[in-house]
Design brief:
heterotrimer; A mainly alpha (about 290); B mainly alpha (about 290); C alpha/beta (about 325); A: mainly alpha; MetI-like fold; 11 helices; globular; C: two-stranded parallel ribbon; 13 helices; about 15% strand
Chain lengths: ~290, ~290, ~325
């Protein structure tokens, strides 16, 4: 750092007149300003309006609405769907990630699966829902499964379609970090594959695995387009109900209810993401 | 590594033979496992895609084949309603604008924070990951008022880029930070500064070129996010590709063009990602 | 009228919203208007709900893209009259008094009766309870969520009336769907043209003008209206008080309510919807007789939900729908 200081004083006269007196953090103002306007301000609006009623007057009692059995039902529905799809996505994604990681690091298969994962992790919405409807489902072309229409099983299968690739993308670096030497060392000491996973590989991968699961959970929680295009005669989860609260044409539209639900969602995701951040930090320690 | 190989050589002949035999058997079992996994997952991912392809090649009556749906990507239009191609154009333009803004906004800021404002690094990480915590469906409820004001400047759907940059922040940040942590920023910047470079030169001509792979990654993630975005455009009453596809799915019996457009978008993203992965490896090999 | 046409042509553009081209022949109506007057129409958000139309009016207030005219459901219209500009079309006296606002703030345009459309592979349906039978497994769908979409709410109300309920109490309708779900016949998939064509939703509760073969896109589509149940619903026109193109907006309304052979009212009847001036037009002979003859017949006296009944139904559904069919 001292080197940098001398070079700075040395270099300064050559560029006299540049903005030298401004502190360094000023350079981050454009970014901070942008985020403040387009992320923090709308969030603030959501939080504030959730506690108001349609006339604009404060109504802190709105918070108790979150305890209303109907509203609780939406959050429970969201929770069920997210839990199922994140567990499913995490387990299968981890298996797939292991299969990809144990191959040639420069090989075609790995590139292919990574590219496919990158594409499918963002794929969702209308076309995915519809594609599944015509393939599976009671009059599906391939499978006749009437359970497919029931919540949350059918929609979980659809969610798995983009949860699994996301898990592959997130979990692969962790598996890559498992050094081959550790496996060899454990085998030389006489451990079986099961013992290796139970005592070495498992604990090392656990934080990354749990972190990935949480990320999948948050991802499923925010997903909207897919379920909206799949079945929208019944609102099972919070995002559907938010959309209804914003655009119902039978007189049930209420922006403040939408704000309240959005606030509840944010709290739910915040809890999950805090867990994710903590686990990421632990996972990073092992992989250094 | 030396210690491990030594360990494997000193024990008696049978244990020296065991690693190799075990290795071979493990390798075979592993390969079997990989083949099974790839086949099963390959099928799971391929089947809906194939179903989509099948429906996109559907003719007027079930059972016939025709390329109409693919040709319709350029020409599909319900009377009096904006054609499909205009929403495709808008979405592609949105992708380009969002990527450009992300580039200009995030890359210099991240490098600058890493170089000169270390104490903001945690805050920046928090802010960049915050959009994952505030999902689009929750954000859009509060965005109405802000977009209200924006609409006095421009009514075009291109205004969506302001919020798309925010949505893409977490993904771009993680890609860029992985690239940034792979290079020794301090040494590079000190070397450049001692040769008389300004901070701007250090950032743009020394550090950024070393992050090319990461930057490309970030741009690609941003672009695929924009191509697939539905929630905010739908609830802010704009017409982008996904909203248009939704509209088509609700209003016409002809689902073919729905599938052909989605498949085209998927294929485009896939090809770009594949090119990116090959381009990245080669560069690293040479350096 | 000529002054209006000149002023509208000078404005040159009309902004409409939430008008799907295949809904009640709107596609033909939009292009007929442009052909006749040369005024370009910007049609946004074709799949929008009535509430979204009103939201757009509010958020885009004062901009050049705000909707000029609205076509919304009754409930939404009555709740938002402060946004409308009063106007009485030339044929004002031919609109029944009960179907317009005395001050000219809103006026109904077209409507239909709630019906059940189904694929002919099921034979012929003769009563609502047929749908509880085993051959309708996973087949019966509504058109949207009844707590959100007007058409879906009226679908449940029709089942309600056919099951012996009254317009003020929708509980029997919800019970019917509950029984449907218990029998495994309820399909939660939203019925769209594509799902009908693919055979995913072969039975659909929808307005009769949306159950036409041509709209649905399959040739073996039949329509059934329960005996004695004529649940009608009309949509409502209104002009945005802050319309960016006020003259074009008023010309549009004149076009929609014109009784000419190629005017709005006849184009609607060609789309299978009943234009609000139907009675007057039958009397003065301007109606398209062939199209009128093709309209599905309904028995019983027509029932139209009042605002209070609509609100009560919505509240009941909000509290009980998810439980009944979830």
């Amino acid at each position: 750092m001292a080197v940098a200081a001398t070079t700075e004083t040395g270099a300064r006269p050559a560029r006299a007149g540049r903005r030298l007196s401004a502190p360094a953090w000023v350079g981050t103002v454009p970014f901070l300003g942008y985020v403040a306007i387009f992320l923090l301000w709308p969030t603030g609006i959501v939080v504030v309006d959730a506690l108001k009623n349609p006339n604009g007057a404060w109504a802190f009692s709105n918070i108790t609405e979150l305890g209303n059995p109907l509203v609780r039902g939406y959050f429970i529905g969201s929770f069920k769907l997210c839990l199922l799809s994140s567990l499913l996505g995490a387990v299968f994604g981890a298996i797939l990630a292991y299969a990809v990681a144990s191959g040639d690091p420069d090989g075609t298969v790995r590139r292919l699966y990574l590219a496919v994962s990158g594409v499918l992790a963002q794929f969702g919405g209308v076309t995915l829902a519809f594609a599944f409807l015509v393939v599976i489902g009671p009059v599906g072309l391939l499978f006749h499964a009437s359970w497919f229409y029931s919540f949350p099983w059918g929609i979980t299968v659809i969610y798995a379609y983009f949860q699994i690739p996301l898990m592959v993308l997130v979990f692969l670096p962790a598996i890559d970090g498992l050094k081959v030497q550790w496996r060899e060392a454990s085998e030389n000491l006489g451990a079986s594959a099961w013992q290796y996973w139970r005592h070495v590989g498992g604990p090392l991968l656990a934080p990354a695995f749990l972190g990935g699961t949480l990320l999948l959970f948050a991802n499923a929680l925010s997903a909207f387009a897919t379920i909206w295009a799949w079945e929208n005669q019944i609102a099972y989860i919070v995002p559907q109900q938010i959309s209804i609260a914003l655009s119902s044409e039978v007189g049930l539209s209420n922006v403040n209810v939408a704000d309240l639900l959005a606030l509840g969602m944010v709290i739910m995701v915040a809890i999950v993401m805090t867990g994710y951040a903590l686990l990421q930090r632990r996972a990073a320690r092992w992989l250094r | 590594m030396a210690a491990v190989t030594a360990l494997s050589e000193t024990p008696a002949a049978e244990s020296a033979g065991r690693p190799r035999g075990m290795q071979a058997r493990r390798r075979r079992r592993l390969n079997l496992f990989r083949y099974v996994v790839f086949t099963v997952f390959g099928l799971f991912f391929l089947v809906p895609l194939l179903a989509m392809a099948r429906f996109s090649l559907e003719g007027a009556t079930l059972g016939t084949w025709s390329l109409t749906a693919w040709k319709q990507i350029a020409s599909y239009q319900g009377t009096g309603v904006p054609p499909l191609i205009s929403s495709i154009e808008i979405t592609l333009e949105l992708a380009v604008i969002t990527c450009a803004v992300m580039l200009v906004l995030l890359v210099p800021t991240m490098i600058w924070v890493r170089l000169r404002v270390r104490w903001l690094a945690r805050t920046m990480e928090f802010l960049c990951l915050l959009p994952l915590t505030i999902p689009a469906i929750a954000l859009v409820v509060g965005l109405g008022q802000i977009y209200n004001r924006l609409q006095h400047f421009s009514l075009s759907a291109l205004m969506l880029f302001w919020v798309y940059v925010i949505l893409a922040l977490p993904y771009a940040y993680q890609a860029l930070s992985a690239g940034l942590s792979a290079i020794d920023v301090e040494t590079l910047s000190e070397a450049a500064r001692s040769l008389g470079a300004s901070w701007f030169t250090v950032m743009m001509r020394v550090i950024a070129p070393n992050m090319r792979q990461a930057i490309l990654n970030a741009l690609l993630l941003t672009a695929s996010l924009v191509l697939g975005e539905f929630t905010i455009a739908f609830l802010l009453l704009y017409n982008n590709l996904q909203v248009e596809l939704y509209s088509i799915s609700r209003n016409t019996p002809n689902a073919g063009v729905l599938f052909s457009t989605s498949l085209a978008a998927l294929l485009l993203t896939f090809v770009l990602l594949l090119i990116l992965s090959y381009a990245g490896r080669r560069r690293r090999g040479r350096g | 009228m000529n002054a209006l046409v000149a002023a509208a042509k000078k404005e040159g553009t009309l902004n409409v919203i939430a008008l799907p081209p295949t809904w009640a022949n709107y596609g033909a109506i939009l292009s007929a208007f442009t052909t006749k007057y040369g005024i370009k129409i910007n049609s946004t958000l074709p799949d929008g709900t009535s509430q979204q139309e009103v939201n757009a009016v509010k958020t885009q207030k004062g901009t050049a893209k705000a909707p000029d005219v609205l076509d919304v459901g009754q409930a939404v219209a009555l709740a938002n009259t402060s946004l409308f500009a009063p106007y009485k079309v030339a044929t004002w006296s031919d609109i029944p008094a009960a179907q317009k606002d005395a001050g000219g703030l809103w006026y109904e345009d077209y409507g239909g009766y709630m019906a059940i459309g189904y694929s002919s592979k099921f034979g012929t349906i003769t009563s609502l309870n047929d749908l509880l039978g085993p051959k309708f497994k996973n087949a019966v769908a509504l058109n949207g969520n009844p707590t959100s979409a007007n058409a879906a709410l009226n679908g449940v109300m029709m089942a309600n009336l056919a099951s012996g309920g009254t317009a003020s109490d929708i509980s029997k309708g919800v019970d019917f769907f509950s029984k449907l779900k218990a029998a495994g016949n309820f399909s939660p998939v939203s019925a769209t043209g594509a799902t009908i064509k693919a055979g995913t939703t072969p039975v659909v509760f929808n307005w009769d003008y949306l159950n036409l073969s041509s709209y649905v896109g399959v040739s073996n589509w039949k329509v059934f209206v329960p005996q004695g149940v004529a649940l009608g619903g009309y949509y409502t026109q209104a002009i945005n008080k802050q319309a960016p193109h006020p003259a074009a907006a008023r010309l549009w309304e004149e076009f929609l309510y014109s009784q000419a052979a190629s005017g709005g009212q006849n184009l609607w009847i060609e789309g299978g919807a009943r234009p609000v001036e139907q009675l007057a037009m039958s009397n003065n002979g301007s109606i398209n007789q062939a199209a009128a003859g093709k309209l599905p017949s309904v028995s019983g006296s027509p029932v139209f939900l009042t605002q209070a009944q609509n609100t009560d139904a919505a509240k009941y559904l909000a509290a009980n729908w998810a439980k009944a069919v979830g």
